[in-house]
């Protein structure tokens, strides 16, 4: 059962306000005007793209579907919410909110987007615009727009989730796990990729534009395409494997979960079990104070051992890593920060000023180099794939002898494996939200 959010939210809003006070003092600013966003029109059409709210806006409150809203905060007084409520008989107009968060805002209604200047501070000197529409900021007279000092600070601190946020993320996991269970059942009953997607969405009660990212639902060799989103309507001649990378949203927070299944007991199923063990061991390794990069490197070490054990490779374990053999089978990063965005901000930040710590040159796709600290939420998602374009390089040079190509041929039709959980770092333990919900 989800904890009552109302008391947790009190602390959340205090923390948001405290951060603003801190950064305003540091940057010598008066306040922030955080814009929810605006609709974007499709080319030569009168239809809008789906609205995606500014993450800085939804950090304050779970209003996700309303453009032309603003939060005005000076870090001292109760924040103002300018809530857009046009007179419009063509479209559904958002109701005036009444929820656990409403009492924490001074709410002002805006009926015409272009009239917002009437509700903004009269003197915008020292007020920074935080949002996507710099043209709007310009017209309104904001001189400061998304200043680096403010953005870096807010992004850094966003990695330390409040109790309210952690509870939202547990709930986003709970919803996604319902979908994963439905999808697994659909796979074993013979559903196509498209049908599995429909059953997933229907089970979680979220539409394609509500989930935090485009689901990856891949049968057989499609599982080797890292960002596969095609969704075949027809079934493959033979059903071999299923990789599903799918999340859910709750109050604007994301979950991001992957599982892989074999249709029958076989060598691929054994490999899934070995990868599952490896993934759990990696979660266990998390300790506050270590860098995420260390965990990523540990993954390669473990993968090399696994490849020897499963007779996929031969030779020296360290050589498999050093010569890039493991990278050809596991070409992406171990994971990333998770939160208001699936690939949440500040994965490379080394401090609140935004000093960038790049991934090691041999691991260019690693999305997080940060020191792990309590209240961070990360994905742990090791993978193993048969991607012929990457393996071609191995096959054609001296490394070829290290790989058991017969085993590669056996595994190829199954595509690949990824197992992804969402983990909270605590001081004394790691909380695997996904496994805690019973998704194995
Ligand atoms: N679903 C995108 C990712 O796992 O990073
Ligand atoms: Mn994922
Ligand atoms: Mn992920």
UniProtKB/TrEMBL annotation:
Entry binding sites for Mn(2+) 1: 256, 336, 381, 420
UniProt domain Peptidase M24: residue ranges: 167-426
Acetylation among keywords: no
CDD domains: Prolidase
Cofactor section: Mn(2+)
Reaction equation(s) it catalyzes: Xaa-L-Pro dipeptide + H2O = an L-alpha-amino acid + L-proline
Domain of life: Bacteria
The keyword DNA-binding is annotated on this UniProt entry: no
Cofactor binding annotation: Binds 2 manganese ions per subunit.
Binding-site list for Mn(2+) 2: 245, 256, 420
Transmembrane parts of this sequence: none
EC assignment: 3.4.13.9
Keywords, alphabetical: Dipeptidase, Hydrolase, Manganese, Metal-binding, Metalloprotease, Protease
Broad class of enzyme this protein falls into: hydrolase
Domain Xaa-Pro dipeptidase N-terminal: 8-156
GO molecular function term, any single one: proline dipeptidase activity
Function as written in the Swiss-Prot or TrEMBL entry: Splits dipeptides with a prolyl residue in the C-terminal position.
PANTHER family on file: XAA-PRO AMINOPEPTIDASE 3, XAA-PRO DIPEPTIDASE
Record family assignment: Belongs to the peptidase M24B family. Bacterial-type prolidase subfamily.
Protein's name according to its UniProt entry: Xaa-Pro dipeptidase
Organism ancestry: Bacteria, Pseudomonadati, Pseudomonadota, Gammaproteobacteria, Alteromonadales
């Amino acid at each position: 059962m989800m904890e009552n959010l109302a008391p947790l939210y009190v602390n959340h809003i205090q923390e948001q306000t405290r951060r603003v006070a801190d950064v305003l003092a540091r940057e010598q600013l008066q306040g922030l005007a955080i814009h929810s966003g605006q609709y974007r029109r499709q080319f030569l059409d009168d239809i809008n793209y789906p609205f995606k709210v500014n993450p800085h806006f939804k950090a304050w409150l779970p209003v996700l579907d309303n453009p032309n809203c603003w939060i005005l905060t000076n870090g001292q007084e109760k924040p103002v919410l300018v809530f857009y409520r046009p007179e419009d008989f063509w479209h559904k107009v958002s109701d005036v909110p009444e929820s656990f968060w409403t009492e924490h805002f001074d709410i002002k209604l805006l009926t015409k987007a272009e009239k917002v200047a009437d509700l903004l501070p009269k003197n915008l000197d020292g007020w920074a615009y935080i949002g996507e529409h710099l043209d709007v900021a310009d017209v309104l007279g904001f001189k400061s727009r998304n200043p680096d000092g403010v953005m870096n600070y807010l992004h850094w601190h966003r990695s330390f989730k409040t109790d309210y946020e952690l509870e939202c993320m547990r709930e986003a996991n709970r919803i996604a796990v319902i979908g994963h269970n439905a999808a697994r059942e659909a796979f074993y009953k013979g559903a196509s990729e498209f049908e599995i997607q429909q059953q997933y969405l229907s089970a979680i009660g979220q539409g394609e534009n509500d989930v935090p990212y485009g689901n990856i639902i891949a049968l057989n060799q499609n599982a080797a395409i890292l960002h596969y989103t095609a969704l075949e309507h027809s079934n493959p001649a033979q059903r071999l494997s299923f990789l599903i990378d799918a999340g859910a949203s709750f109050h604007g927070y994301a979950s991001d979960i992957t599982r892989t299944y074999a249709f029958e007991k076989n060598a691929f199923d054994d490999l899934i079990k070995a990868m599952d063990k490896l993934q759990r061991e990696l979660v266990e390794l998390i300790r506050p104070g270590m860098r995420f990069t260390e965990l990523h490197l540990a993954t390669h070490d473990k993968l090399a051992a696994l490849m020897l054990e499963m007779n996929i490779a031969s030779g020296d374990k360290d050589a498999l890593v050093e010569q890039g053999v493991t990278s050809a089978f596991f070409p992406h990063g171990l994971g990333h920060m998770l939160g208001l965005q699936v690939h949440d901000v500040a994965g490379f930040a080394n401090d609140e000023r935004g000093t960038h710590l790049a991934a090691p040159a041999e691991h260019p796709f690693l999305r997080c180099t940060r020191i792990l600290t309590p209240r961070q939420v990360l994905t742990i998602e090791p993978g193993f794939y048969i991607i012929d374009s990457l393996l071609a390089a191995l096959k054609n040079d001296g490394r070829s002898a290290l790989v058991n190509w017969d085993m590669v041929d056996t595994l190829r039709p199954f595509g690949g494996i990824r197992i992804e959980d969402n983990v909270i770092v605590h001081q004394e333990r790691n909380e695997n939200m996904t496994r805690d919900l019973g998704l194995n």
